[in-house]
Each structure stands twice: as C-alpha cells, then as structure tokens.
C-alpha cells in the first residue's frame, strides 16, 4: 500500500519551490495549476502575484522558470501570453508514475487510517409499503458513498432508518388481529421459501383492506386507535404482530436490494422504532434547556428564519399535543445516538431534497441542544426527483407511483436483449448472457442515477440508459471487456512499462487522465459528489476510444511498444474496474 503522488501535485510543488526561490518576498503563493490543451498543464498564478508585487508578469515568470531546479519530471516550461506558464511533462515521468500506480493494489490512491467516522443514513424504505424510485436513489447514492468513503480510509457506519413506526401500525395490527390468517404464506405451506413478491403482495392486500375498513367503519377506527396506544405502551401481543409486519417487509426489502446487487446487513437496519426508548428523554432535555417550548400542547422548536406563507413561524414539532412522537423526535434521538454512542464525526443523510427543511430544523435544534457541535458535521446529501420521459414526476399511466421492482425487471430485460445480440461474438453461454444482462441492466439504472449531480432531477429513460453509445454504464462496461479481450489475445506478450519510449499524444492524454484517479476520488469523497467519479470514468473510456483509433496495440511497431500499450490498457481496465466497483457497478470480463 504505497500512495503515489500525482504528476499534478509534483508539478505544483516544483512550481511553488520555484516561486518562493525567485520571489521570496511574495510569501507562499499558489501557482494555480490546471490541465490545459496547449501543454499538459498551465499555471496562471504569476499574474496575480505580479499585480501584488507591482512587477512585470512575463519577467517574473521568466525568473520563476529559471529558479526551478533541473528535474526529470518537467520536460518543458514555456512562458506564454501575459505571463502564463505552459508546462509539459516528460514521457518517462508519465510512464514511471503509472508504473508506480500499477504496482499498488490501490492504484496509488492514498488511504488515511486516521480519518473520521461517518454515520451514513441511506436506503430507508418504509415497512408495509412498496419501494419506489425515491428509495432507489437513496440506496444507490448511499451505497456508492459508503464504498468511496471507506476506500479513502473513513470509518463508515451504515444506518437504514426504515419507517417502521407510526399510527398506521395500529390499523394494520388491529386488522390482523381480526383477520388472523392474512399474513400466512402460500409458499411456506408448500415448503418453499417466501419470495419478496409474495411478501409485498400480502402486505399490500392487508394495507388496502385495513385502510378501507378504517375509512368506512367508525368502530374499527376506534379499535385501531386504541391499538396504537397498546403498541406505544409495549403490549406484548401487539408488539409481536408489529414484528411480523417488519419481518415480512424485510423479506421484500432484501429481495429488492439483492436485485439491486446491493449488500444490506441486518444489524445496520435501525429503523425509527430503534429510538423509541430515547424519545421521552429527548423531549425532556429539549424542554428543560428551553430549546423547545410548549405551544398549544405540542412541544415545538421555533426558528427566526423559517416562516410559512402566512408569515407565521413554522415550528419543528417534537411531540404532538396528544403525546405522540413524530419523525423529528426520532431523528433528534438518532443524532444523540450517532454522536454519543457511535462517535460520529460526520452525519450524512442521503434523503430526498424535499425533506430539506426537516433536516435544516433538526440540525439546528440539535446544535442548540449541544448534541451537534463544531467537531461534528451534519450534512444532507439531498437528491432530486426521478422524472418520467415526459419530464413529470414518474407515475404509471393510472397515476400511481411506479414500483421499483417493475422498473428493475424491465431494465434487466432490455439489457439482456442488448447482451444477447453480441452473444456469438463475445462467445457467451446462456448463463453468461443472463448474468451479464443483470449486471448491465442494474448497472444502467445505477449509473443513470449516479452520473448526474444528485440534487438535480433526472429522467428515467431506459432506452437511453442501455444505449451503447454515450455516457452510459454499458459503454464503460464494453470499454472494460474490450481491454480484457485484447489482454487475452496478447498471447505471450505481457504488459510492461517502458519509460524509455516516446509516447503518442493519445497515450499521453490517457496516461495523464489515469494519473488523476486518486485526486478525483479525494474530491468526490470531500464533496459527496459521486457524479464526478462517473464523469471521470466516462472521460477515461473516451480517451481509450481515441487511443484505439491512433495506437494499435497487438499490431504495435515494436515489441516494447506493444508491451507498453498493454501496460497502459491494463491499468485503464483496473482503474475502470475499481471506479465502477465504487459506484456499485459490475464489470463483466466478456461482453
Ligand atoms: N423513510 C423515509 C422515507 O421514505 C426516509 C428516512 C430518511 N432518514 C431519516 N433519518 N429521516 O421518506
């Protein structure tokens, strides 16, 4: 495990040295380095510095260049325009740096063992309810952030804050008491395992039937309300039935997460009910400290800057006037648990942007109560809405929310058709077609979600998602499989770095991009921006396409060049594979 400094950071350092040697009076200054089309990098920092020192920027630039000691990395530094520096890296430095990356399991990406602890709240569906596309986003973005943060060294604790508590359980449980066989399984009778589909269809049926009764039968309504009280009081029979709903729902959740090729672990599922025994105390602490006040019987927290359309303040209601606790009380208790017991230094919430106000109020309340302080960062990684092709929130023709499983199945079907077409050429068995169909279909859905900035809405368009051309996961998966195929066909020739060779422009461009992997990951982790990783990988695949056009691999001019090109594409494959794995997307060997 050896982290490899990027060429950009090496250049940055050399320039900074040159700057302080030539212009000690300027103090530490940023050379403002960026990638450039004219050379490999351009530095613009001298312009601002010249202004500050009231000097001629071109002259200063010339002095800086002269002050940079001889070295193997910088092949050429040229002063251009009003005082920019155009910097070209030596071919040997590029290949040597990449060889150092290739020699490391982690591709030279730094690992910080003393990073903090992030508790991440993601993949939080609701018990007894169907999962929809909003739950998809939270799960997909959250899972990618877990992998990315862990890869950088952060300790990550996962929390699936499922909606497993609330008044609707009174109605459901009461109905089940009155119709005891409603949750029995047909499949179990036959000794088969219960499928997620069956579990959900049971729950759906129960939900609809109990709702109908609740709305039409006053006496049932009264019994259902009394059942809520029993549930909250911890009555044993009531709790046991509640547990059956939770367990039944988990069968369904797990089936969806498995379809999503996602690893969700039972101990990490700590739903709203997990904080029940903290709620009372949370309210007491808030009230005693004066952070919350009683208003019309309810326990409320007020904010100067949060007002409704009528100009009246909108409070965060921690406890309702009937004594019931809501969503906010649970989230506040969860903060106490995550900071106090789990020792989080960061709380990350992957939740729909429409819950932004809720989290703003919850975080502010926790800060006032001292549960959050300067040492703990709380952040909502807010995501936008999934839209249909028509640009409106995604609904079925009947106006119902679209079931996530139906979408996933359709994506897999479409992808399987795409894979099937290339079956002969790739030499795939039927099983491989089915497996790749799943990897391509699920990858397509994940990638579409991850490749736009989370907070933006995006259109769920399966045609676009499984397209072989364009910014799609299958384009990246093909790029990977193509490299693997070339490596298999290389026979005796093995990938080997040859720093003595001159590089073609496409090799340089791809090489410099490969070298940026660690820097991009650091930015992605820091900004919670997985779309920047997707963009990086797409650019890498684009560089690869240009490289293939210009640089024959197996038919290279010399044996050394062939080995060096095999080395370049192998590192590209590893980078693609690693990057896609962080996004939760598989890269089949043959496609
Ligand atoms: N279950 C909620 C929903 O479906 C999301 C929970 C978000 N997490 C939280 N700590 N409030 O909208």
TrEMBL record:
Keywords: Aminoacyl-tRNA synthetase, ATP-binding, Cytoplasm, Ligase, Nucleotide-binding, Protein biosynthesis. It comes from Streptomyces laurentii. Belongs to the class-I aminoacyl-tRNA synthetase family. InterPro entries: aa-tRNA-synth_I_CS, Arg-tRNA-ligase, Arg-tRNA-synth_N, Arg-tRNA-synth_N_sf, ArgRS_core, DALR_anticod-bd, Rossmann-like_a/b/a_fold, tRNAsynth_Ia_anticodon-bd. This is Arginine--tRNA ligase. The gene is argS. Monomer. It holds the Pfam family Arg_tRNA_synt_N. Residues 476-591 form the DALR anticodon binding domain. It catalyses: tRNA(Arg) + L-arginine + ATP = L-arginyl-tRNA(Arg) + AMP + diphosphate.
């Amino acid at each position: 495990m050896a982290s490899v400094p990027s060429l950009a950071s090496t250049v940055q350092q050399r320039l900074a040295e040159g700057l302080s040697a030539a212009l000690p009076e300027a103090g530490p200054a940023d050379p403002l380095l960026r990638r450039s089309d004219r050379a490999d990098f351009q530095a613009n920092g001298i312009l601002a510095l010249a202004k500050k020192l009231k000097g001629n920027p071109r002259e200063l630039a010339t002095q800086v260049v002269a002050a940079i000691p001889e070295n193997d990395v910088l092949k050429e530094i040229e002063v251009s325009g009003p005082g920019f520096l155009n910097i070209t890296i030596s071919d040997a430095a590029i290949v040597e740096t990449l060889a150092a990356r290739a020699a490391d399991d982690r591709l030279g990406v730094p690992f910080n063992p003393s990073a903090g602890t992030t508790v991440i709240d993601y993949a939080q569906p609701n018990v007894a309810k169907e999962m929809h596309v909003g739950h998809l986003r939270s799960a997909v973005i959250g899972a990618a952030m877990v992998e990315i943060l862990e890869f950088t060294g952060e300790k990550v604790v996962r929390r699936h804050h499922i909606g497993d508590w609330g008044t609707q359980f009174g109605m459901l449980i009461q109905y089940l008491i009155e119709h005891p066989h409603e949750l029995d399984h047909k499949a179990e009778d036959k000794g088969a395992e219960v499928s997620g589909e069956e579990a959900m269809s049971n729950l759906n049926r129960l939900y609809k039937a109990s709702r109908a009764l609740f709305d039409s039968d006053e006496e049932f309504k009264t019994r259902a309300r009394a059942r809520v009280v029993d549930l909250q009081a911890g009555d044993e029979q009531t709790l046991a039935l509640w547990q059956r709903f939770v367990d039944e729902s988990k069968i369904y959740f797990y089936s969806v997460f498995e379809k999503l090729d996602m690893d969700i672990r039972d101990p990490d599922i700590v739903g709203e009910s997990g904080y029940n025994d903290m709620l009372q105390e949370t309210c007491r602490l808030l009230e005693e400290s004066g952070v919350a006040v009683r208003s019309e019987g309810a326990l409320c927290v007020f904010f100067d800057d949060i007002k409704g359309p009528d100009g009246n303040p909108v409070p965060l209601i921690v406890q309702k006037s009937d004594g019931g606790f809501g969503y906010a009380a649970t989230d506040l208790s969860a903060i106490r648990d995550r900071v106090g017991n789990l020792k989080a230094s960061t709380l990350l919430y992957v939740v729909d942007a429409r819950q932004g106000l809720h989290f703003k109020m919850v975080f502010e309340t926790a800060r006032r109560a001292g549960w959050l302080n300067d040492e703990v960062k709380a952040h909502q990684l807010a995501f936008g809405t999934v839209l249909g092709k028509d640009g409106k929130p995604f609904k079925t023709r009947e106006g119902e929310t679209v079931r996530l499983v139906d979408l996933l199945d359709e994506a897999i079907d479409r992808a399987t058709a795409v894979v099937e077409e290339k079956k002969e050429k790739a030499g795939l068995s039927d099983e491989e077609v089915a497996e790749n169909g799943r990897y391509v279909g699920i990858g397509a859905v994940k990638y579409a979600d991850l490749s736009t900035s989370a907070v933006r809405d995006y259109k769920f368009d399966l045609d676009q998602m499984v397209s072989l051309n364009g910014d799609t996961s299958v384009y990246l998966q093909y790029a990977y499989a193509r490299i693997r195929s070339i490596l298999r066909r290389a026979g005796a020739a093995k990938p080997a770095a040859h720093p003595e060779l001159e590089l073609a422009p496409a090799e340089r461009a791809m090489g410099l991009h490969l070298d940026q992997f660690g820097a991009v990951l650091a930015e992605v982790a820091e900004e919670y921006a997985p779309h920047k990783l997707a963009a990086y990988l797409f650019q890498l695949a684009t560089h690869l396409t240009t490289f293939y056009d210009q640089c024959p691999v197996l038919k290279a001019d010399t044996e050394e060049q062939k080995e060096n090109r095999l080395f370049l594409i192998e590192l590209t494959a590893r980078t693609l594979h690693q990057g896609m794995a962080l996004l939760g997307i598989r890269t089949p060997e043959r496609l």
